[in-house]
Specification:
It is built from 2 helices and 8 strands, in the order βββββαββαβ. It is of the alpha+beta class and 106 residues long. The chain has one domain. The C terminus is likely disordered.
Amino acid sequence: MKILDLPVKEIVYTSDRLFGRFFRTPTPSSLIIFPDGSGEVVQYPPQSVVNNAKYAFLGGHRNELNAEQEQAVITAGYGDLIKEVADVPNRVQDRKPRILRRVLKG
């Protein structure tokens, strides 16, 4: 089975204009394939673009591809984003585990 591994872009937000804190947030990208066969990777696609697209692969989801979708992604020029299930790292399992220690007084 093949899935679409969309890129994640880190976006910096601020809490207010003058004395705000900066927050770095990983934001998944989405791949939109239009009816003419072209494609575009975008951050926040408007609903009208998603409705008019032939295929809309939204970021942050596990997008499993059938043969027709796989061919559409390759034709649009984004074949490098297609991965086998075994090739995609599990981002949750790749995180370093937190070590919790319990101190016993005796």
